[in-house]
Write a structure and sequence with these properties.
single chain; alpha+beta; eight-stranded antiparallel beta sheet; 24% strand
């Protein structure tokens, strides 16, 4: 009996160690280590051209092993041309693999982007917002980009920044951030089906499948969002 307990305890310890190594490697991968990608600072492209619509995309993309979520803000110009204003997500602000591993417990974070954020998404939900709200979101994110922030794998992660941005945009943010980015983006779409959702993008499909996904997401959303939870007001709505 004692040997069985000892053997079970050994398996538990080994499993915990392997799980910890996977999580640390995951955090390092999200930080861009093992690749040449270092998070670039937040940038905003301003244009004097008149816009027909102001768009905010909440996106999930592939990244080993869990994926990554981030935001793209755009203006739709005359003729339907879409001009990107800013792309941003939350990344650990570290300069070595050792520091990246500390992000499991908590590490400095940076609001910015890497080239992979400009590629093909796995999920995307797009919202049309008023210009005042669009400018309000840009201001909130600019403030965050200059504020000391912390990256923590299971709480203050990439989904958390997406949620803060959604709240600043007057939307409902999913309360749980410790989920896969693709699931977080889908939940965000479902919670805001009547709050300006205009399109959905699922696994590279924007045609009928994308439209069906958008329709599925247009369910009744809660009357109040979690502005208080994230510390943002509804100013600029």
């Amino acid at each position: 009996m004692q040997k069985r307990l000892s053997l079970t305890a050994s398996f538990v310890v080994v499993g915990a160690l392997l799980g910890g190594l996977v999580l640390l490697a995951s955090t390092a991968a999200l930080a861009g280590y093992g690749a040449a990608d270092i998070p670039r600072p937040l940038s905003v492209s301003r244009s004097k051209a008149e816009a027909d619509a102001y768009l905010i995309d909440f996106i999930a993309r592939d990244a080993f092993p869990f994926g990554h979520s981030y935001v793209r803000m755009s203006r739709m110009l005359a003729g339907g041309r879409v001009e990107t204003v800013s792309v941003f997500g939350l990344y650990p602000d570290v300069s070595s693999m050792d520091e990246a591993m500390l992000a499991f417990l908590g590490a400095p974070a940076k609001v910015g982007f890497i080239p992979a954020d400009l590629g093909q998404p796995l999920r995307r939900v797009r919202f049309k917002v008023p210009r005042a709200r669009f400018e309000h979101v840009l201001g909130v994110v600019a403030t965050l980009s200059h504020r000391p922030m912390t990256y923590q794998t299971f709480s203050e992660n990439c989904n958390a920044l997406v949620g803060r941005t959604a709240v600043a945009a007057g939307l409902v943010a999913p309360s749980e951030t410790a989920v896969l980015p693709v699931d977080y983006i889908e939940r965000l779409g479902r919670l805001n089906g009547q709050n300006g959702l205009i399109s959905a993008f699922v696994d590279g499909t924007t045609g009928r499948a994308g439209r069906r996904a958008a329709v599925r997401m247009r369910i009744k959303s809660p009357g109040r969002h979690q502005a208080k939870r994230f510390g943002f007001s509804r100013a600029g709505q």
